[in-house]
Amino acid sequence: MATPKALIPMADYGHDPTETAIPYVAFKKAGFEVQFATESGTVPECDKKMLEGITQKLLGATRDAVAAYKQMSTTPEFNNPNSWSSPDFNLDSYNLIFLPGGHEKGVRQLIDSPIMHKHLASYFPDTIKPSMKTIAAVCHGVMVLSETIGPDGKSIIHECDTTALPGKFEQVAFWGTRVFLGDYYKTYGAGSDNVETSVRKRLDDPDKQYKNSLGTGPFVVEDQKYNYLSARFPPDAQLLAEKTIEVVQSSMV
């Protein structure tokens, strides 16, 4: 089997360290070649509030996730990302596109990128099973896909089963920290749609397609038509990585 090639697109700043580093370590352990991409090739940096200080201790990454992030952040691939705005950049050579989440406002650079939307609109149709191409996303990473509009005027995941950050989780985090963190937990500001609402609006039949779990155990959704997997938040990251590895490896046999 050829070596699977994975890409993790990132904003310059703000992605969740757990949702980025835990899958990265799992992909590398599975023998994947992993590359990163930012808009202009800037070395990315994950959300510091999740990595240090009182916010890390109360709300942020676990000790294992912090260790994984430190491991990832010293690698040549992390420190030499591709530029997704480069004229010669494309997604064609990758077997996996992995989209991490994060609620820090910096992640809007990726969620709202018309250039990345163009690349994903081209790539996603090629993930129809059977295919050697796969997309996986967690939390706000799902919004990168839901906000990517295809030639038909619909989101590229309009017919997919998916999950994302549950609205109830987002509201608890927002209201529970508003006094000392303001609207930190609302990526588009206080009063904006939560992630679940934003994603549901892009689905053909959200009541059937949007899969939810308010449990604390890991939860991952795999679409049946496309090689597309999604998860909710950091505690799902390990399971999402494992299931994504299974899909990629089985698709390349």
UniProtKB/TrEMBL annotation:
| A Pfam family it matches | ThiJ_like
SUPFAM superfamilies from the xrefs?
Answer: Class I glutamine amidotransferase-like
> What InterPro entries is this protein classified in?
Class_I_gatase-like, ThiJ-like
Please state the span of the N-terminal signal peptide per the UniProt entry. none
Q: Which organism was this protein described from?
A: Phialocephala subalpina
Q: Which domain of life is it from?
A: Eukaryota
Q: What is this protein called?
A: NonF protein, involved in nonactin biosynthesis
**Any stretches that span the bilayer, and where are they?**
none
Query: Coiled-coil stretches, from where to where?
Result: none
PANTHER family on file = SLR1854 PROTEIN
